[in-house]
Amino acid sequence: MLRSISLISKRSNSSSSAALLKTPLYESHLALGGKMVPYAGFEMPVLYKDQSHIQSHNWVRANCGLFDVSHMLQHNFSGPSAKALLEKITPIDLASLPVNSSSLTVLLNNEGGIIDDCIITKHGEEQFYMVTNAGCREKDVKFIKQEISSLQGDLNHNTFEGTLLAVQGPKSKEILQKFVSDFDLNKLTFGQTKFNKFNSIIDSEVHIARSGYTGEDGFELSIASSNDVETKQAQDFFNLLISEYPEVVKPIGLAARDSLRLEAGMCLYGYELNESITPIEASLAWLIPKARRTPDLATFNGSSKILSQLSDRSLVSHQRVGITSKGPAPRDSSSKIFDKSGAEIGYITSGSPSPTLGGNVAQGYVKRGSHKSGTEIDIEIRGKKRPGVISKMPFVPNNFFRG
Q1: Cα angle at 15 between 354 and 120, to 5 degrees?
Q2: Which NCBIfam families match (predicted)?
Q3: For 328-372, what is each residue's pLDDT tens digit?
Q4: What is the spatial distance between Cα 197 and Cα 13, in angstroms, rounded to a whole number?
Q5: What are the φ/ψ torsions at residue 395 (nearest 5 degrees)?
Q6: pTM metric for this prediction
Q7: Residues tagged in the binding site annotation for substrate
Q8: Where are the beta strands (DSSP E) in 190-294?
Q9: What are the chain's domains?
């Protein structure tokens, strides 16, 4: 737990002096004994009463955990120019993305650096929904507005607040199906979405996405919370899940969310990703679809640099890798990485003890040539070099529902 708390505290420092925002589920967190911490400008639960970090983590791997991710920013884009905008600021291929499907992608600056990672859902040929990170709210909105101002054509963009609830774990479908009587949730595979009613508990339709950031099967629910009535319905639904099914469902905080995504080999913005790192350097080449790798269709920001790195990997100096180790866990960029000759070759971006595997899992950047799985390294931790191994990710196999 110490590693996760340390990472969360570091990420929160920039907002600690300002008034913290609260999500629609804030009062529920307090009632459940949530330990609240500053995170990306919000007051968020890191742990809950009578739960350790390891217990919370293991619960999600075996049962169903509820994560309040309402601090993340939701966007709608619509109009004839919406597709052109999104295909300029990200490398996504919206032409081949089916309606009611989503994809992970990245916002790119003109040098190919990553402004933020995000999920884009296609609701129609001119209608799209996007979720971006809480800690990047101001700069993301500023960036998008600047890009819209330089684009000719009709386009509507708005951001909105609401309850965003991640329901994660192998029993998540079993639980949510109890509230959706008119649709078989197994018809939604990973990456697919649907608007649906929740059996009279919530008046508005809920946006259901089979998605998540834990490596487990799960869903992300966008629930309208624009007034007191809608907010209370969202709170009542959250509370009901926990009170009615305590043997299966628990609320889970930020500490376990971090260790779960690390085991799943997923990036955290501000650690593995930033504006000086390209998707190729971040080992995210798969985010550049084949259709967007030709010069005539590579209209996205920074495409020249990114396509050059794709075709000639010698242009990539450092690359994101997975790392496993024993003993004290590597933490962040203060943990330098060395090859066995003693030469410094990189740095850790984030790491944690692995409740699932034992030992530690981490991510970092190393010089290309030292990036191959199985390469033995040394990691400097508290002034002492300790052995580690470059390892394939995900560290724990993903259990996404593919049908």
Answers
A1: 65
A2: gcvT (TIGR00528), PRK00389.1 (NF001567)
A3: 999 888 899 999 999 999 999 999 999 999 999 999 999 999 999
A4: 39
A5: -70, -35
A6: 0.95
A7: 220
A8: 193-198, 202-209, 218-223, 249-251
A9: 2-70+162-262 (3.30.1360.120), 317-403 (2.40.30.110)
